[in-house]
Amino acid sequence: MQVTETLSEGLKRAYKVVLPVDDLARRLDSQLVEMKDKVRINGFRPGKVPVDHLKKMYGRQVMADVLQDAVNEVNRKIVEDHKIRLAGEPKIDIEGGDEGVKKAIEVQGDLAFTVNLEVLPKFEVGSFDDVAVERLVVEPGDDEVNDALNRMAEQSRPFVAKEGAAAKGDKVTIDFVGKLDGVPFEGGAGTDTPLTLGSGQFIPGFEDQLEGAAKGDERAVTVTFPAEYQAPHLAGKEAVFDVTVKGVEAPGELKLDDEFAKTLGLESLDKLKEAIRDNIKREFDQISREKLKRELLDALDKKYNFELPPGLVEQEFNGIWGQVKSEQERTKKTFEDEGTTEEAAKADYQRIAERRVRLGLVLAEVGEQAKVEVSNEELSQAIIERARQYRGQEKAIWDYYQKNPDAVAAQIRAPLFEEKVIDVVVSKAKVTDKTVSKEELLKPIEDDAKA
């Protein structure tokens, strides 16, 4: 076997490999000899099938496997001998194309091919003393706690049957059938559906047209689906719903006291408020964490500048661009609708792809140096939490991840690893706590990098 480096430019490497036909023949014969004791062929005793007969029957099939194993062996040897850190799978270019492969399979000539590689860049992580970020801190006020308590109370409020017309705040029980141009559409019907008027639960305008309705009334409710509606075939369309009111209920009295708290599993109203405050604090802390992480990634993006593997960038860009085009197909929007052009959009998403690859490499290097690991226990707990997000489908979600290790790696392990690495960087960076208002905390991030 001959291996010759033919390219070493930036992060690209290429090696010319020649596997002599004699070596291939020996490999083939070795495989066929191993087959003798395994195959069963009529007319021959076990282990007595002549190698020449096996070669005639299985030679081409076995040789194809021999070639694949030989190529894989060469790839491993190149990586090990040159201490290469691969940025992606090697690409193989067979000399002579299909004809070259055919000659090798038929053991009529050497197999010559080129192994094209991309290697990971080398860079120094260094310290993070020069990385300064702010952590936004918000303490829940009494107003937030009381608002949350009132919302909780409204969800638990009892309703009592009411005679006469329904008003805003009343609950109606309805049957309905939605139609487009007189034809019922999928997902547009419901039976014994509870609806609190004024809740905004249904399409804008729907609930308003049921005010004044009484039990037994039938109404034709005309509404227009929002242009951004989740179902593209309904977006912007006018629909008529045939509605039958089967019952009207008025909100009953609800006292916010210790007894109410006990219905929710807390011993007193004070304990309920304390639990609500803790929950709001966790939500605020999570938002603060996301903003801190974004600011930190922005700082790291500016801190590091090194050559990126073109293949990784292309792969990332293709993934992003595929999502963009799918979203356009779903919403029926064009680049012109968004005030840009396809060329400008591609340039923006190219920069985003480069940013993601750069940050991914930096975080991977930090994680490796800090010996960051994700334990099996952490993975299992994360999968359980993911499954809990899909009520009624918990077992299906769990089974999916048990059967799809690649999905576990990409959707569970990778995010956990990233969060752990972020913790490492935060622990070494200059982090200043800044007390801010709830409004400032909730202010949207300028999404110019889309990290």
Could you list some keywords that capture this structure?
451 residues; alpha+beta; Alpha-Beta Plaits; Chitinase A, domain 3; Trigger factor, domain 2; 3 domains; five-stranded antiparallel beta sheet; four-stranded antiparallel beta sheet; 47% helix; 20% strand; elongated
Can you give the helix content as a percent range? 40-55%
CATH topology of the largest domain: Trigger factor, domain 2
Major β-sheet, in short? Answer: 5 strands, antiparallel
Number of domains: 3
The number of helical segments is: 12
Reading the helices and strands in chain order gives EEHHEHEEHEEEEEHHHHHHHEH
Overall SS class: alpha+beta
Task: Determine and state the CATH class of the largest domain.
Answer: Mainly Alpha
What does this structure look like?
There is one protein chain. The chain is an alpha+beta fold and 451 residues long. It has three domains: 2-118, Trigger factor ribosome-binding domain (Alpha-Beta Plaits); 158-253, Roll (Chitinase A, domain 3), CATH 3.10.50; 261-441, Trigger factor, C-terminal domain (Trigger factor, domain 2, Orthogonal Bundle). The chain is built from twelve helices and eleven strands. The chain has helices at 21-36, 51-81, 97-105, 142-156, 258-263, 269-303, 310-331, 342-369, 376-388, 394-403, 405-428, 438-441, and strands at 2-9, 12-19, 91-94, 111-118, 132-137, 159-161, 171-180, 183-196, 218-224, 238-251, 430-435. The strands form three sheets. Strands 6, 7, 8, 9 and 10 form a five-stranded antiparallel β-sheet that branches. Strand 1 and strand 2 form a beta hairpin. The chain is elongated and about 95 Å long. The mean pLDDT is 89.
